[in-house]
Amino acid sequence: MHFTPLLLAGVLAELGLAAYSIKDDYSADNFFNMFNFDTFDDPTHGYVNYVDQATADSQDLFNVNNGQVTFGVDHTNVASGRGRTSIRLSSKAQYTHGLVVVDLAHMPGSICGSWPAL
After folding, report:
1. Rounded to the nearest 5°, which phi and psi values hold at 64?
2. Do the bridges between strand 68-71 and strand 62-65 make them parallel or antiparallel, or are there none, so unpaired?
3. Cβ proximity of 82 and 40 under 8 Å
4. CB 50: neighbour CB atoms within 10 A?
5. In terms of CB atoms within 10 Å, which end of the chain has fewer, N or C?
6. Spatial distance between the Cα atoms of 41 and 13, rounded to a whole number of angstroms
7. pLDDT tens-digit map of 6-37
């Protein structure tokens, strides 16, 4: 009697695992191809200047090195005009459901001036 529920649970687990497949790959080599660089005014009215990919690249706001993607804000210049130069990424893909696996080496905490979102 105890064997049947365990066998059924094992079969259901196998069926559940078989239902997932990799749809999109956000690895370092392909990461920035999967996103748009938004350049509109900050919808929360923050003091930030979102820039396009070419500008962000020229100002070293992102980097791909040893299979890792890093990005941040301009921390060397005095902010002026629209605000601190930064990037805002939005996915080109939309999902209604799924399983997302993320491997983060570092993500900023919720401190003043930081709005980490995933």
Report:
1. -120, 115
2. antiparallel
3. no
4. 21
5. N
6. 46
7. 444 454 455 555 577 888 989 998 999 999 99
